[in-house]
Design brief:
The chain is mainly alpha-helical. The chain has helices spanning 6-19, 22-31, 37-48, 53-62, 68-80, 84-93, 99-111, 117-125, 132-145, 148-156, 165-177, 181-189, 196-208, 212-221, 227-239, 243-252, 258-271, 282-299, 304-313, 320-332, 340-352, 356-365, 372-381, 385-394, 399-411. It is globular.
Length: 412
Amino acid sequence: MPERDLVAWNSQLSALGQAGHLQEAKDIFSNMPKFDALSFTSMIQCFGQHGLLEDAKYFFLALPHKDLVACTVFLVVLVESGCFHKAKNLFESIECIDVVSCAVILSAYADHNDSSIAEAEQIFYTMQRHNTFACTAILRLYSRQGQTHDAEAIYLGLPDQGEHLVPATALITAYACNGHLKKVQKLFDGMKERNEVTWTAMPTGYVNNHRLEDALWNFEKMPGHSEIPVIVLMSGYARSGHMLFAKRIFDNSSEKSAIAFNALLSGFSSNSQLLEAKTYSWIGAISRALDAFQTMVTTNTPDEARLTALPTSCAHKGTAAIAWDLFVSFQFDHSIKPSKQHYSCMIGVLVWSGYIQDAENLLWEMPYYPDSMHWKCLLGAVVSGDAMKNAISVEPSNSAAYVLIANSHIVT
């Protein structure tokens, strides 16, 4: 077999990194007869794209001569890891920056809440040319600051505005976040091409501005209903208390993922106290929540978030029996061991429904050590000697238990 050259070694490193075989990549690197800057850069990218910042940093620091490519790759790693200040320091240390490195650091400024818009503008306006990524980053930054006029000026400076999907979508978001909905619709209607992100931005913008009818109108115009706009619209209707519409959107959606189920169940839970005021019966809300749960278990494996949300939705009117049946069903029907959070939820349901002794028995019987929140939940309903003593002993510095005890003595 002919001896492999450096190009072959580097190609193998890159392939192993993309496939996620990190240890094999390390082994290959340690056995290479010689290295070049690309060898180290491949390792930086290999570990960086899998979130292993310290490993990527090790290879970056070990690189004798840090060229622009290696610096830019590690800059991307730092930005994607949320290390804004480290990324900023690295960028400032690069002697010969280019359009790519500028676009990367500008995206970091756009993502970081406390970043300086003046610094970002200085980087942007000293660039020899502006690519789509740099324009989108500065657009997003202006959007966050509420400077829609500046964002619009950047967009209008692009040739063939309607053909630039990413910056157009960023401007749509900027308009929507600042309530300029007429401009949102005008920009959207003038686009020559639209993708899923652009379509999703429309109902999202209207939902965030409490324009549910317009959101639904744009939603129904979409060529296909992916998960994100479905969840956005469901959540919008749920926040407004219109669970009948939220459930209808859910039923008509083709994709019913764990996130969609969580959104629906959380909507029923948060609205169970409001349904009577909005002419929906509370029993009907619980029935629909249970129906959603039964559909869920036939298509998905229930997770902890959903299993906690459903019993809580049964708690507000004291239907402890339903909540208890669900709690038992988790263990015997779905072979899921209840977590400490599940026990906390069930104890709360029993307390809210007036079953104080049952709540205290469950607290003692659960396979977890009770913390102060468990005892304070029990204490909030009735002050017993055990609850009083344990609530204080578990967390003596927390004032809530003392306030509850004091209030109970004032009442009595």
